[in-house]
Amino acid sequence: MSTRRPIWIAALYSLVLLTCSISVAKADRRVALVVGNSNYSNASLFLANPKNDATDVAAALRGVGFEVLQAIDANKRDLDLNMAKFARLATDADAALFYYAGHAVQYQGRNFLMPTDAEVEDEISFRYQMTPLDDVRAALDRGDGVKIVILDACRNNPIVNALRRKKKSGDSRAIDAVRGGLAKIDKAQGMVVAYSTAADEVAADGDGRNSPFTSAFLKRLKEPGLEIEQLFRRVAADVNAQTGGRQRPETYVSLLSNYYLNQTDRIAFDKIKDSPDPAVLQDFIAKFSTSSYVPEAQNRIQRIEAAIRERQNQEARQREAARLAEEQRKAEREAALRKLAEQEEALRKQETLRAQAAAEKVRKEREAAQAQEEQRLRLVAEKERKEREAAKAQEEQRVKLAAERERKLREEAAQLLAEQARTKIAAIDRKEPTNPSLAGISTDIRTLPPPTEAAPAPGDPCDRDGAMLAQLRSNASIEAVTELERRLSCEKLRAQILRLRESLSAVANAAPAIAPQIKPAVEKIAPPPALVIAPPPPPPAAPKQEAAPKPPEPPKVAVATVAPAPECKKDEARLAKIRANPSHADLAALERDLGCERLRPQIVRLRESLPKETAKETAKDAPQPDQPSAAANPPTLQSAQSAPSGAKPAQPAPIVQVRSCDEERATLAKLRASQSREDVVRFERELACEQLRPQVIRLRESLSGG
Prior knowledge:
The protein is 54% helix and 7% strand. It is built from 22 helices and ten strands. It has helices at residues 4-27, 50-63, 76-90, 123-129, 133-140, 158-168, 212-221, 228-243, 264-272, 278-287, 294-430, 461-474, 478-486, 494-508, 515-518, 566-580, 584-592, 600-609, 615-621, 661-674, 677-685, 693-703; strands at 30-36, 67-72, 95-101, 104-107, 110-113, 131-132, 146-152, 178-179, 191-195, 250-254. Helix 2 runs parallel beside helix 7 (212-221) and helix 7 (212-221) crosses helix 8 (228-243).
């Protein structure tokens, strides 16, 4: 981390210095006017290289930071316009440079530049068709900085020879003042003047792309860090060597301080002079070996290397101190860890001993508890087995007593019906057979008209079937109940219809027992197909007399309907109301106050067909099925019927609460959700909680579909 920090600092310094150097470079404003004339209107004045010289010099000056105006093959107007622009640019400039390549002449000690359209006929042409160098100097004087004039114009000029020939012929009086070379410019403060050759001498145009002077100038301009006087001194040496001493450039310098045309070394050094990286400074020295900033860069490198060595020594001392401190901390940590490990080992041994003692104690307690639990389970199992056996015996005794009582009721009803039938038969035999009101009475067994079916509701089938079931409860008929069961669409009402049909069939089952008793007495009378308790029918209408008498038919025996006793009528009316509006409480009150014992099976079946209430309400309101009514008036067929008195009512078996009732009740709830008859049958066979058996039976019967 410490070695990376100087790099970041160096980068930051470089960025700051680059910004500062750019601002300095922008503040140092330098302008230049470069003119190169090759193609003159006078074909004899054509020069090959000035155009190339001006183009290359303009590009080189732009490369070192000059703002350049360039004029190639400029006529008098173009040259004047460019001079005006240059004069404006030179105002307040830090450096102003003028470069000219082409023809120029000296007249009366003054230098004139020749535009491409100049026609020199005599001395008057110099004033009006040539551009005096004094105008260039005037433009340069508008600047406050360095003024530089570079003239590569002392070429061999045919005009000078032509003017001299005119002198011989006597055409001009002042031609002696015309010379081929350029005159020296008076020295001025802050000015540098570079001639391509010595005063009053002619410069060579050269055979290559550039003249010898311009070629040497371009070469030395690429070397940064050369002071301007040193630069032109090297240019003169190069031109002298290239021309074999025939051309010797001259330079006049009047500056109070050093000036550098190529300042790229200064710009580069300003960027890196505060850099902490010696490699950057070494690169500068290698690239700008002639720069005046090389000594300063070397001193900077020495200081940086000394600082780096000092920093490295300091870092080495810090690393050594850190190493010693780390070793000491490591030794202390290892000692603490050893001590902690010894303490943990001692604690572990103590914990192991305690754990072994606790495990032995838990094992003994578990064995004792297991033995007690096994003993308790054996006692509980034995107790449950005995309770199940006792409950089963009590249930069997209760079922047996109920069956015996029901059988006796059916026998007594059959005897009463048989006695009434015999009485009717005897009465019919005593009457005249021609009595039209008694003809065929034995075959007209009165039955209740089937209940009127309710109009089918357009909504849910369960609503329609429920309405029909409520109507049948108020006006019960076994045929109508059977028809409703056959056409039933709502399966959830099938169990209630089944219970209603079973309650109605308890009385209807007495009819088959009457036929065997009547058949031996009257062999020609067919037994009635069914027996339904109903109120006496209205007397039949008298039949019409036939035209021809028919032979008498054998007498027929009519079975009279059983007229209910007053108590039975009252109980039947209450039962009909309960069927129309089922209620556990009303049904329990009717069963408790029942006076007509032949209605008890119907009440039991109706109670079982109703939805189950909670155990608390059932235990509070409903009596046991085997408990006899307090007021039992004997029913009569036409007068009165005696209730059985020989049998004692069976006491209800107590509900045995076993330990598994809660579990079996949860299993029964799951069976109600699963709706699987096989699982219900298997659960009924394995049932241990007898108080749940009626619910299981009802569930099985509801799943069996009747």
